[in-house]
């Protein structure tokens, strides 16, 4: 389990997904659809679909982690909209070790692969991403979190 944390708020996620949409829009390519890598890629894919006006949204269900422990990736449900990913955007929330990315790329070698966040080990496996996060840091997404009380910093401060 990573010691350091990077907490991503809904606002930040939305802003970063819009930045990713801007970048992809500037490529001036015609996309046949989006493929979300579930589950983490689903909310980024929904935001990109809205921003880019793409209505064909498919998914490939892959599980690589269980309780922050990496395992062999498995496809739980395959994509149906394309054979090889040509002219499709492939979207995930992040690339960490790159194990998931390598695995999905074998299945969809022609897709354009974008993630919102990337750690150094996985970065070479994606075509584009928005922000880099250190390898020793665990990214917490807004769907993993809830608002809670925090004690004041100074010991003598009123609680
Ligand atoms: O680069 P890697 O080391 O392979 O890690 C990245 C993958 O791990 C997480 O998915 P996870 O398997 O936890 O499933 P989830 O998206 O359903 O939460 C994340 O959403 C990426 O898909
Ligand atoms: O929520 C997550 N945060 C991470 O940093 C990560 N790395 C792999 N899988 C991950 N899931
Ligand atoms: Mg995932």
From TrEMBL:
Cofactor: Mg(2+)
A GO cellular component annotation in the UniProt record: plasma membrane
Pfam families in UniProt: Pribosyltran (PF00156)
Residue sites binding guanine per the record: 96, 139
Reaction(s) catalysed (UniProt annotation): XMP + diphosphate = xanthine + 5-phospho-alpha-D-ribose 1-diphosphate; GMP + diphosphate = guanine + 5-phospho-alpha-D-ribose 1-diphosphate; IMP + diphosphate = hypoxanthine + 5-phospho-alpha-D-ribose 1-diphosphate
Keywords, ordered alphabetically: Cell membrane, Glycosyltransferase, Magnesium, Membrane, Metal-binding, Purine salvage, Transferase
Entry's Gene Ontology BP terms: GMP salvage; IMP salvage; purine ribonucleoside salvage; XMP salvage
Binding site for xanthine: 96, 139
Binding positions for 5-phospho-alpha-D-ribose 1-diphosphate per the UniProt entry: 39-40, 92-100
Pathway annotation from the record: Purine metabolism; XMP biosynthesis via salvage pathway; XMP from xanthine: step 1/1; Purine metabolism; GMP biosynthesis via salvage pathway; GMP from guanine: step 1/1
Family, similarity comment: Belongs to the purine/pyrimidine phosphoribosyltransferase family. XGPT subfamily.
Main function: Purine salvage pathway enzyme that catalyzes the transfer of the ribosyl-5-phosphate group from 5-phospho-alpha-D-ribose 1-diphosphate (PRPP) to the N9 position of the 6-oxopurines guanine and xanthine to form the corresponding ribonucleotides GMP (guanosine 5'-monophosphate) and XMP (xanthosine 5'-monophosphate), with the release of PPi. To a lesser extent, also acts on hypoxanthine.
Protein name in the entry: Xanthine-guanine phosphoribosyltransferase
UniProt source species: Thiomicrorhabdus xiamenensis
């Amino acid at each position: 389990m990573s010691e350091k944390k990077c907490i991503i708020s809904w606002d930040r996620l939305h802003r970063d997904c819009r930045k990713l949409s801007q970048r992809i829009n500037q490529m001036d390519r015609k996309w046949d659809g989006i493929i979300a890598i579930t589950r983490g890629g689903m909310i980024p894919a929904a935001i990109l679909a809205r921003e880019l006006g793409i209505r064909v949204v498919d998914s490939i269900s892959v599980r690589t982690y269980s309780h922050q422990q990496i395992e062999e990736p498995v496809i739980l449900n395959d994509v149906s909209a394309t054979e090889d990913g040509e002219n499709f955007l492939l979207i995930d929330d992040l690339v960490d070790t790159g194990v998931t990315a390598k695995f999905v790329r074998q299945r969809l070698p022609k897709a354009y692969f974008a993630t919102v966040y990337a750690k150094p080990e996985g970065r070479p496996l994606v075509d584009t991403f928005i922000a880099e996060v250190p390898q020793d840091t665990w990214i917490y997404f807004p769907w993993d979190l809830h608002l809670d009380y925090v004690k004041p910093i100074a010991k003598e401060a009123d609680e």
